[in-house]
């Protein structure tokens, strides 16, 4: 898909409610925020979705070696991770968070599930997620914002967990 000019229809503030309603498998990117900007939407969405899905697969993997391999594919060495417990730098910080918080949840074996498509207007992307029990019960949901480097690896993750009230 070629480059396209954005219109004002998808400006920030008016599109937030529609994002979660778009299925993960949706093929056409919605209008993006930033009237007048140019981007290659389909390519960004696919590149970013690959990195995000690899990161989520790593979060769901119990095998430490497999998790490290997946994180090596999804994240830069010096990734900055802004999580619910504070800021961490490097793949090891992300791996430790996954091991200590995600994999050792009191509810037992849980899964991280992407609930929206990856919306990537440029090098930044956002996506919705849900953390659920093995029975599929939602335990927590939120939205992550990630920055993807030119090589396609995530170099910054900002986690927003829980609803805004």
UniProtKB/TrEMBL annotation:
<dbReference type="InterPro" id="IPR037401">
    <property type="entry name" value="SnoaL-like"/>
</dbReference>
<dbReference type="Pfam" id="PF12680">
    <property type="entry name" value="SnoaL_2"/>
</dbReference>
<feature type="domain" description="SnoaL-like">
    <location>
        <begin position="52"/>
        <end position="155"/>
    </location>
</feature>
<protein>
    <submittedName>
        <fullName>SnoaL-like domain-containing protein</fullName>
    </submittedName>
</protein>
<dbReference type="InterPro" id="IPR032710">
    <property type="entry name" value="NTF2-like_dom_sf"/>
</dbReference>
